[in-house]
Amino acid sequence: MHATSPSRTATHHTQNVTALPPHVWFAGRLLDVLTGRRPVASLAGRVVPEAYDRLWDLVNARADWGYVARGHAPRLLTKPRVSPSPDGTAIEVAATVALAPDIVRALAFRLERDGTRAGGAGWRCTAVEAR
Fold first, then answer.
1. Helix, coil or strand: residue 69
2. pLDDT digits (tens, 9 = 90+) for 13-29
3. Cα–Cα distance measured from residue 68 to residue 34, given in angstroms and rounded to the nearest whole number
4. Is residue 109 within 8 Å of 30, Cβ to Cβ?
5. What pLDDT is recorded for position 69?
6. Which of 6, 8, 90, 93 is deepest in the core (most CB within 10 A)?
7. Within its chain, how far is the Cα of 99 from the centroid?
8. pTM for the full predicted model
9. Which residues contact 39 (CB under 8 A, 6 or more apart)?
């Protein structure tokens, strides 16, 4: 029996990983922040200052999200609804989330292309809401 080298195994696993679309990645991170599983600072640099301030307001106003979600795995309940701008420089996203089996809430946010990142391929959140 031959031993598999760690580098060969790691290479094999990383080849099967696909990057999430930016709106799916951000929706998951936003849900983690709003339920207290990640700090707000984990989104620093990916959110413009006005939206970052709004995110802090939401975290404080939605403290019940973390309480309700304790003992449960909050998740996106439905596939996020995406509305791209005509020129493709922005997307507006709405998603339904389940905090617990019988508690459903909504998230909405806007992502805009960030030309300041290497290659201009990054996205930044410019607006965020949670109800």
1. helix
2. 445 556 888 999 999 99
3. 11
4. yes
5. 65
6. 93
7. 15
8. 0.78
9. 33
